[in-house]
Amino acid sequence: MDPIKLPPAAEDVRKEIKGIIPETSTSSHQAAEIEPKIRKDGNKTYLGDWLANKISFLKKEMHIGDAIGDGWGWHLVYFSNSTELQNDRKQGFLVPLSEEITLTPGGVLQEGFYMNITTEPVVSSGATAIFIVPRN
Fold it and tell me: Source organism's superkingdom (predicted)?
């Protein structure tokens, strides 16, 4: 699980998304385009059409779209607790919105990079990331 540098256009989209998520934004304004939901585990997930469009473009610019096709979805999560990443199919791509996140096992994943995830690592508390996964 080695980090892969995001292509420049994908990094631009990642920064745009990062700018509207309260846990990663430098602005105190919460965008109306996103819908936060608190999960049972205490972590927060974000939804919305604006995010869906941006993440679709992000996948395209990461050049993983041809490899994964349209049958893949995404989760944008703020991990308020250290949490095992649910990855039943043992495949996915993790894109950090935080400056860095720690994966155990896996090490540190810094912003500007993404990682192909084939296990169920524990994600550090305080991390915010997009997890691109096969739809069930």
Answer: Eukaryota
